[in-house]
């Protein structure tokens, strides 16, 4: 009986349900003062490099535990058991230096017991310290005031912040979160896209019970908006926090209570009634031109945006804003729309502005202004000043409503002789003979009535004692409201214009840029506006390399010298470090160096010698053979030159070549004569031939049949006499039959050379360049045009170098 011998069973890794172990690590670190912590977004923290080493060690131990848990019992008599353990060892080596993604932490403030979850930004903090974002500081209730002195050898060395306990904690992926707005009036259209972008860019985790602050754009009144939400519940349920990376998160917005919901609906309805373009709201703005004035209205605290797409760049341009009813707090702001200026003008970010307290405001732009060099259009904004209690859509804190203010906006090219100042130009010349100027109101009056006028004027009118030249009725409200700034020469006639002037030029506190972390402070709004449109890293630009509207980046306090010298922004300097292939020479070049590289190609193009066309008027070749890369002497450099002094290409000279000694070229002349007589007598027999000195070509062109030898010799003699003459000294063209392709190239080259400008630019290209282009591109007309643009010199450019 045969024994049933079966191979030993291979050990199988059974998929038994094991609880997935998690990374275990914790430490206690001192909080880095906020002045020494770089700006951190969202829930990001900075840990020291020693924490990374400890986490990698903990991850290695975790990987070893996982591999050891899943291994079967080792059987020394089973050969496959060794292979299984080798595979487990390889798996361990692959996983021992791998940290979980994303890496999340549980932060605890031992002083008050507050807990919040966070994600890692970098391992670049000082040893023994942890850096927290402003959101995490507020959630944990820690401030720099809680810092304590560290005493070393009896001396106070440095300040140390409160201790923070940090635990490595892996969180479940969130699928649902409920947010409750803390203030009424939020419109979902305002925050929906902002919330998604803010979470994706700044947050790794969401902690239940925390307040999520989503920065918005600028409201219609130009102020930065903030949307504050209370995080109130997750799915999966029961979790204190969830991870929001690589997950589809459903967000539900629910009001805190019924009163808030009713107030929200009320504000949304009020907002709809005063939307831009409505009867009670501000005007919608739009495009304007030089031939039609724009009439509109504006609510306090809002902007009306216009754009002037075109004007005569060689003339001065004047933008005039006229407010009705003598309103002085409607202001004119202008910013060029260019690759370096992409934002619309706002009161804290503009290039040109007229903010003085006058009903009529004018800005004159000269064609030599450097800000207009790259401007594609002009963005013009009308801004109505609003007091601190004003809210969007014309409401105030006490519930009253502002009426819209009407204005007229126009653009024109002024007469160069017109004065550029807004102040009227006084003259000592009387308008009429016999007129005398009143000493009180400075008006011209007839001399015969001067006494009556002065008596009335001195009794009823009052000249401003501050020297502004305005005249008021005594005890009138206008004179009571008239003001002069004690710090400068500004003045106005309404309390609102006085408040506007103080707000813009003399704020109660120093101003800081809201878009960057510069240490510079600003004493006035114009200086802040200049910063935001010049060196601010948050200024929006159109990158010349990625072609996206992005912040220009950089350090506002320490300008990048390389960026200044290269006339690029720091973002463009970094983005331009990417490389690409030059379409002309196929070399790898950095994007930011491509302009200089192409200028070098232009210099080579100007100094490149033109091609020498074959002397045969029917041939479409050059003597030295042009290459695809623009070399007009490529064939000669490779030893494939014409090899003759006649001026024929190697193909046309081939039938005339013999190896005999002929110093006086008598035999050459006989061969040329024989070739002519053969063509005129018998022809080449090719139906497509267009050679005028060939029987076949003459027949196809309808200019005659065969020519007898007697008649042919006088026709040929001029070509023989000028056969060896230099070019331009009696040299004549030759007429030999060629192949069809060469003949077609010559005809196309002549048509191409006859074009004056067209696709190639001013003046077109001469015949020799067109012949060389078609030769280099194998007769492809489209490619030949590109070759001419890249390598040839136009007629109007001339040769340089």
Automatic annotation (TrEMBL):
<dbReference type="InterPro" id="IPR042299">
    <property type="entry name" value="Ufd1-like_Nn"/>
</dbReference>
<dbReference type="Pfam" id="PF03152">
    <property type="entry name" value="UFD1_N1"/>
</dbReference>
<keyword id="KW-0833">Ubl conjugation pathway</keyword>
<feature type="domain" description="Ubiquitin-protein ligase E3A N-terminal zinc-binding">
    <location>
        <begin position="674"/>
        <end position="701"/>
    </location>
</feature>
<feature type="domain" description="Ubiquitin fusion degradation protein UFD1 N-terminal subdomain 2">
    <location>
        <begin position="173"/>
        <end position="255"/>
    </location>
</feature>
<feature type="region of interest" description="Disordered">
    <location>
        <begin position="410"/>
        <end position="437"/>
    </location>
</feature>
<dbReference type="GO" id="GO:0006511">
    <property type="term" value="P:ubiquitin-dependent protein catabolic process"/>
</dbReference>
<dbReference type="InterPro" id="IPR055418">
    <property type="entry name" value="UFD1_N2"/>
</dbReference>
<dbReference type="InterPro" id="IPR055417">
    <property type="entry name" value="UFD1_N1"/>
</dbReference>
<feature type="compositionally biased region" description="Polar residues">
    <location>
        <begin position="420"/>
        <end position="430"/>
    </location>
</feature>
<dbReference type="GO" id="GO:0034098">
    <property type="term" value="C:VCP-NPL4-UFD1 AAA ATPase complex"/>
</dbReference>
<dbReference type="Pfam" id="PF24503">
    <property type="entry name" value="DUF7590"/>
</dbReference>
<feature type="region of interest" description="Disordered">
    <location>
        <begin position="1"/>
        <end position="24"/>
    </location>
</feature>
<dbReference type="Pfam" id="PF24842">
    <property type="entry name" value="UFD1_N2"/>
</dbReference>
<dbReference type="Pfam" id="PF16558">
    <property type="entry name" value="AZUL"/>
</dbReference>
<dbReference type="InterPro" id="IPR032353">
    <property type="entry name" value="AZUL"/>
</dbReference>
<dbReference type="GO" id="GO:0031593">
    <property type="term" value="F:polyubiquitin modification-dependent protein binding"/>
</dbReference>
<feature type="domain" description="DUF7590">
    <location>
        <begin position="281"/>
        <end position="413"/>
    </location>
</feature>
<dbReference type="InterPro" id="IPR056012">
    <property type="entry name" value="DUF7590"/>
</dbReference>
<comment type="similarity">
    <text>Belongs to the UFD1 family.</text>
</comment>
<dbReference type="GO" id="GO:0036503">
    <property type="term" value="P:ERAD pathway"/>
</dbReference>
<dbReference type="InterPro" id="IPR042556">
    <property type="entry name" value="AZUL_sf"/>
</dbReference>
<feature type="domain" description="Ubiquitin fusion degradation protein UFD1 N-terminal subdomain 1">
    <location>
        <begin position="96"/>
        <end position="147"/>
    </location>
</feature>
<dbReference type="InterPro" id="IPR004854">
    <property type="entry name" value="Ufd1-like"/>
</dbReference>
<dbReference type="Pfam" id="PF23580">
    <property type="entry name" value="Znf_XAF1_N"/>
</dbReference>
<protein>
    <submittedName>
        <fullName>Uncharacterized protein</fullName>
    </submittedName>
</protein>
């Amino acid at each position: 009986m045969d024994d049933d011998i079966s191979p030993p069973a291979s050990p199988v890794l059974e998929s038994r349900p094991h609880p997935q172990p998690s990374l275990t690590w914790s430490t206690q670190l001192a909080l880095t003062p906020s002045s020494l912590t770089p700006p951190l977004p969202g829930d990001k923290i900075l840990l020291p490099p020693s924490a990374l080493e400890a986490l990698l060690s903990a991850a290695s131990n975790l990987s070893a535990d996982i591999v050891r848990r899943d291994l079967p019992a080792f059987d020394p008599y089973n050969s496959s058991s060794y292979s299984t353990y080798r595979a487990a060892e390889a798996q361990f080596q692959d996983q021992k230096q791998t940290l979980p993604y994303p890496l999340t932490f549980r932060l605890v403030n031992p002083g008050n017991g507050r807990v919040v979850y966070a994600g890692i930004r970098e391992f670049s903090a000082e040893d023994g310290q942890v850096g927290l974002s402003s959101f995490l500081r507020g959630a944990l209730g820690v401030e720099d005031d809680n810092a304590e002195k560290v005493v070393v050898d009896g001396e106070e060395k440095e300040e140390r912040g409160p201790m923070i306990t940090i635990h490595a904690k892996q969180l479940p992926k969130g699928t649902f979160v409920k947010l409750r707005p803390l203030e009424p009036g939020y419109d979902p259209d305002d925050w929906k896209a902002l919330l998604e972008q803010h979470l994706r860019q700044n947050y790794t985790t969401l902690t239940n019970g925390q307040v999520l602050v989503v920065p918005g754009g600028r409201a219609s009144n130009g102020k930065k908006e903030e949307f504050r939400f209370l995080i109130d519940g997750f799915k999966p349920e029961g979790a204190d926090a969830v991870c929001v990376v690589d997950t589809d998160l459903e967000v539900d917005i629910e009001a805190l209570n019924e009163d808030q919901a009713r107030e929200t609906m009320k504000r949304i309805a009020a907002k709809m009634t005063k939307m831009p373009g409505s009867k009670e709201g501000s005007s919608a703005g739009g495009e304007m031109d030089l031939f039609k004035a724009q009439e509109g209205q504006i609510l306090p605290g809002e902007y009306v945006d216009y754009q002037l797409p075109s004007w005569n760049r060689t003339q001065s341009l004047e933008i005039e804003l006229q407010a009705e009813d003598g309103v002085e707090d409607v202001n004119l702001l202008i910013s060029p729309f260019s690759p370096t200026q992409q934002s619309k003008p706002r009161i804290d970010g503009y290039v040109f502005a007229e903010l003085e307290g006058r009903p009529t405001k004018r800005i004159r732009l000269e064609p030599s202004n450097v800000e207009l060099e790259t401007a594609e259009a002009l963005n013009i904004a009308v801004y109505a000043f609003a007091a601190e209690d004003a809210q969007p859509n014309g409401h105030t804190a006490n519930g009253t409503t502002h009426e819209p203010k009407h204005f007229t906006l126009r653009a024109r090219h002024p007469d160069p002789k017109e004065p550029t100042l807004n102040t009227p130009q006084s003259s000592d010349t009387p308008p009429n003979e016999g007129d005398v100027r009143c000493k009180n109101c400075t008006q011209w009056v007839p001399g015969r009535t001067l006494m009556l006028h002065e008596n009335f004027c001195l009794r009823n009118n009052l000249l401003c004692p501050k020297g502004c030249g305005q005249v008021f009725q005594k005890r009138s409200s206008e004179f009571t409201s008239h003001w002069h700034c004690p710090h400068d020469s500004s003045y106005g006639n309404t309390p609102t214009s006085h408040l506007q002037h103080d707000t813009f030029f003399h704020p109660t506190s120093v101003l800081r840029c809201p878009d960057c972390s510069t240490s510079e402070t600003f004493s006035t709004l114009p200086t802040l506006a200049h910063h935001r449109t010049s060196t601010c890293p948050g200024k929006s630009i159109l990158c010349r390399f990625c072609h996206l509207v992005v912040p220009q980046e950089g350090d506002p306090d320490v300008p990048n010298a390389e960026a200044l010298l290269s006339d690029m922004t720091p973002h463009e300097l970094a983005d331009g470090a990417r490389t690409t292939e030059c379409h002309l020479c196929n070399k790898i070049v950095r994007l930011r160096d491509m302009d200089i590289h192409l200028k070098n190609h232009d210099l080579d193009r100007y100094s490149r010698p033109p091609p020498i066309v074959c002397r045969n008027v029917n041939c479409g070749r050059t003597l030295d053979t042009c290459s695809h890369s623009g070399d007009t002497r490529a064939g000669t450099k490779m030893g494939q030159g014409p090899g003759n002094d006649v001026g024929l290409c190697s193909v046309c000279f081939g039938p005339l070549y013999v190896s005999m000694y002929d110093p006086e070229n008598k035999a050459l002349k006989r061969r040329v004569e024989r070739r002519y007589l053969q063509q005129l007598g018998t022809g080449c027999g090719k139906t497509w031939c267009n050679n005028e000195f060939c029987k076949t070509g003459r027949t196809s062109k309808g200019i005659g049949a065969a020519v007898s030898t007697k008649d042919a010799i006088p026709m040929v003699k001029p070509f023989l006499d000028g056969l060896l003459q230099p070019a331009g000294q009696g040299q004549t063209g030759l007429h030999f039959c060629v192949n069809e392709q060469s003949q077609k190239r010559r005809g196309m080259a002549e048509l191409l050379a006859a074009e004056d400008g067209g696709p190639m630019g001013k003046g077109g290209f001469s015949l020799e360049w067109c012949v060389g282009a078609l030769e280099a591109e194998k007769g492809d007309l489209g490619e030949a045009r590109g070759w001419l643009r890249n390598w040839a010199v136009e007629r109007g450019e001339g040769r340089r170098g």
